[in-house]
Amino acid sequence: MLKNIILKQKKEKEQYLTFNYVSRTKEPFGKKWLSSNLIKVILGPRRAGKSVFCLMLLKDCSFMYFNFDDEILTSVGGVSTDELMKELHSVYGNIKNILFDEIQNLPAWELFVNRLHREGYNVVLTGSNSRLLSKELATALTGRHIPIEILTFDFKEFLRAKNFQIDPEYGSLPQKHGELLKLMEEYLINGGFPEVVVSNLDPKDYLEVLFDSLLFKDVVKRHRVKFSTQISNLGSHLVNNFASFYSLRKLQVMLNLKSITTTEKYTKYLEEAYLIFSLFLYSPKSEQRIKSPRKVYVVDNGFISAKAIQHSPDKGKLMENMVFIELVRRGIKPNRELFYYKTRNNREVDFMVKNGTKVVELIQVCYEAKNLEVEQREVNALLEASKELKVKKLIILTWDDKRQIEQDGVSVCFKPLWEWLLKEDQV
To answer: N or C end of the chain: smaller count of CB under 10 Å?
Structure first.
């Protein structure tokens, strides 16, 4: 049985290696670490391209492959790791490179991986649960692993998939500029799940089914949630209220959940499955950070368009969600280096970026900033926060407005979203 699964997966692997794929922004980073003796852990939502990313990293070397997300394994009640290694070597021979897909489905996987690491295997893992990055990895593989997070396509990858050649001059060429904005609107609405971008799938139908299946597989089934309707309602509510504030107490009352503890637990399950992120208020006082309302963001804008009940897209909020996810892609950790901020006069700044103990950047997101009242509201919030936090880098990301203004001796840069998304340097 096990050998048949390995042979079937080997055939699939070899077939996948013959395909052409969109190159990913993190490939150079992954290749840099590939030959190290650290365990490479590729994390991110399902269907975001983690397995393909690994295949591309390993394509020039011989490697064994096993996917723990095979439904046959569930039906036979799991797998013996000793038996697995014996059968892998009987199929592949004496090979030390190994790729394990969806490792979180193997009970006590960290003990098994640790053993392989001690035995000299070069191990690459994928997982669709962010808790792997924190609790399990921190306790079991401390100092012996390198995490690489692969989310859905960024805008550069999206444009490569659409065969649109990126050139900084496009901002000044009307035809190309118009094509670029049209593609950005498609990306804003449909998101960057690879199968949506490269195939002629209906984004809404595909992503609605994907969201529901991820909710069932990675939340309800994994955590044995008894009241699946409640957690489904919670997921739908948070997606419908993306880029908005929520409090655990209000969610508990609204959705008739058992307790605040249950509400927080369910919310964490959704975060672990890479469906949503929660962003805290920045404050030097930890009590204020914990007690203040949180903002919710969705892992991909396509899920919002598929699941949210809306008369027309709120492009300003979709832009804000896109900016948040891009900051996460760039390695900025929510609630450690990335927060929202409120000034003493209760003016809100969408994103505050830290580097160590220093605040380095404040970002506002605004679809249309040419209205004088809107402009002043956004600028005043940044200027006020700039004084309080002693930070000079102030950016307002707009749909297509580029200029700079000076006020109170401070510069505020208005930057088109497409230009910010395409920049080469990381924050």
So the answer is: N
Domain ranges in the chain?
2-149, 314-427
Q: What type of residue is 389?
A: L
CATH class assigned to 2-149: alpha beta
Of all residues in the chain, the percent with pLDDT exceeding 90 is 77
Answer yes or no: same fold for 2-149 and 314-427. Answer: no
**Rounded-to-5 percentages of helix, strand, coil across the chain:** 50, 20, 35
Q: Would the pLDDT of 148 be above 60?
A: yes
> Please, are residues 40 and 133 in contact by the beta-carbon 8 Å criterion?
no
Rounded Cα distance between 341 and 282, Å, is 5
List, for residues 59-70, the tens digit of each pLDDT value: 999 999 999 988
E strand segments, 10-55? 39-43
HEC string for the chain: CHHHHHHHHHHHHHHHCCCCCCCCCCHHHHHHHHCCCCEEEEECCCCCCHHHHHHHHHCCCCCEEEECCCHHHHHCCCCCHHHHHHHHHHHHCCCCEEEEECHHHCCCHHHHHHHHHHCCCEEEEEECCHHHCCHHHHHHCCCCEEEEECCCCCHHHHHHHCCCCCCHHHHHCHHHHHHHHHHHHHHHHHCCCHHHHHCCCCHHHHHHHHHHHHHHHHHHHCCCCCCHHHHHHHHHHHHHCCCEEECHHHHHHHHCCCCHHHHHHHHHHHHHCCCEEEECECCCCHHHHHHCCEEEEECCHHHHHHHCCCCCCCHHHHHHHHHHHHHHHCCCCECCCEEEEECCCCCEEEEEEEECCEEEEEEEECCCCCCHHHHHHHHHHHHHHHHHHCCCCEEEEECCCCEEEEECCEEEEEEEHHHHHHCCCCC
Task: State the architecture of 314-427 in CATH terms.
Answer: 3-Layer(aba) Sandwich (3.40)
What's the alpha-carbon Rg for the chain, to the nearest Å? 23
Assign 108 a pLDDT band (cuts: 50, 70, 90): confident
Task: Specify the pLDDT at position 343.
Answer: 97
